[in-house]
Automatic annotation (TrEMBL):
Record organism: Cirrhinus mrigala (Mrigala)
Protein name: Uncharacterized protein
Source domain of life: Eukaryota
InterPro entries: B-cell_PI3K-Signaling_Adptrs
Length: 72
């Protein structure tokens, strides 16, 4: 995509909105949003890390792994 924040999940992660990110990660389509790269090649979890929210990145990564396990 040609924008910095192509999804609400990117926005939430960049600004460290933990409750919103948690809510968004549980919504239908969350894994699709988690897999979208922005114009700089960053995924939402990368934006969280780059913005100083390493705990949020860890939460997002752990949640994504648990979702993948449930689907397999």
């Amino acid at each position: 995509r040609n924008v910095e924040l192509p999804t609400l999940l990117h926005f939430s992660a960049k600004y460290g909105f933990k409750k919103l990110t948690s809510l968004l990660m549980r919504c239908p389509g969350a894994m699709q949003a988690y897999s979208v790269m922005n114009k700089d090649g960053d995924y939402p979890n990368n934006l969280a890390e780059k913005s100083g929210f390493s705990d949020l990145r860890q939460y997002m990564d752990e949640y994504a792994v648990s979702e993948l396990r449930e689907c397999s």
